[in-house]
Fold:
Amino acid sequence: MHFCVFVCFTTKAIHLELASDLSAQTCIAALKRFIARRGKPKEIFSDCGTNFIGAKIFLRSWELETIGHYLSNEGIKWTMNVPSAPHFGGLWEATVKSMKFHMKGVIGSQILSQEEFSSSLAEIEAVLNSRPLVAASDDPNDFSVITPGHFLIGSELKSVLEPDYTSEKILIQERWKLVAQISQSFWKSWSKDYLTQLQVRNKWKIPSAELNVNDLVLIKDNLSPLKWKMARVVHTYKGTDDRIRAVNLKTVSGEMKRSIHKLVRLPVND
Structure:
């Protein structure tokens, strides 16, 4: 089994589509399912994989001979990512790399049925689309954020409340627990990695920036899938080096003091 990854350059929403093989025909089928649920894109960028190149050629023939107006009415343009400019495909390359690493880690050598793999992809897609992008407002009493999920369904994505199966040995008669175990394990490993990468990226983009009062931050915590703990900075504490080392935070449940190493500033205009 394989899967296609669609990444929106505007909203950063991610769509995962099951694919039985890497043929051009399967790529077309996955694209049709994507369009049926998400709408028709005006332009598609993809890498130089042979299956994508074959799909592009097949699409041209298909459009002319079979369903001419299906794509031409929307004017979908297919662009290949040129090998000499790999940075241009950085957005989807980073997404695929992160997903592959953590999915390999949680699935390992397990053999999944098509139903189990499809269900796992749907839940992992929800995890990825739950990540906070920007603050919903500048109100210091507002802890809400905008996520890719808001652009997909109009609100934040929710997960079904289930026991923690990550450390449980799944018996053959309890295979129904396997999908939950996979999505929970993916959440635990991917969310930690995502927060670490976000923290490093923030330092790289603005190395001298410090937290300020009213900044909206993510708190590194052990939470259930699709849950992100948000807080506003209400007070800062400097160390002997005159740099901020700890802050007081206001959350929906009260106030707390945390080291800056446990916090990640939410991206702004990222």
